[in-house]
Amino acid sequence: QIVLVSGHLDSWDVGQGAMDDGGGAFISWEALSLIKDLGLRPKRTLRLVLWTAEEQGGIGAEQYYQLHKENISNFDIVMESDEGTFKPSGLGFTGNAKARDIMKEIMALLQPINVTDVYDSADGTDIDYWMRDGVPGASLRDDLSKYFWFHHSQGDTMTVQDPNQMNLCAAVWTVVSYVIADMEEMLPR
């Protein structure tokens, strides 16, 4: 059984893609790294996917889906960060009411960093195929007030990234992915 965390590496225009979507790729990598460094071994597999060609029509996501859809019942949740890694506020979540209640309990664990909101739906071109087929999905929600200042511009460089805010985003990604991967049962569908 698989808990998938992801971001994409497909900067193709004038910027370096540090924010869009290097930040999402980084926090996904960091989540798995932190879990490993802490010596934690969840019941399910944590899988990192660094998507490609999202900007060119989601070609990488479609290819991955085609290669793995026969095992769709083994995918517990698919998570994608693609809206920068600014100060996080919670997660967008797509899933049934029982799964949403579980997600709210998980997010309550993040009260010490004040990131507890569960929004109505997950967003992510790269995880849409899975969510359409009933796999629960989550997307990081953060402060978007500066996102379009840098999105697809020459300003999308590493200087946009705030290490403290990225650490908070990585903490959210780590806690949510680990707890789901270590629960007794998969999220209900």
Please provide a written account of the structure.
It holds the Pfam family Peptidase_M28. It comes from Uria aalge (Common mure). Residues 2-173 form the Peptidase M28 domain. With 189 residues, the protein is an alpha/beta fold. The chain has a single domain (2-182), classed as 3-Layer(aba) Sandwich (Aminopeptidase). Helix content is 38%, strand content 19%. The chain contains six helices and six strands. The protein has helices at 18-37, 59-68, 97-108, 128-132, 147-150, 163-182; strands at residues 2-8, 45-51, 75-80, 88-94, 117-119, 137-142. It has a six-stranded mixed beta sheet with strand order 2-1-3-6-4-5. The chain is globular, with a radius of gyration of 15 Å. The model has no long low-confidence stretch (mean pLDDT 93).
Comma- or semicolon-separated keywords:
38% helix; 189 residues; Aminopeptidase; alpha/beta; globular; 6 helices; 6-stranded mixed beta sheet
Précis, in short:
This protein is about 40% helix and about 20% strand.
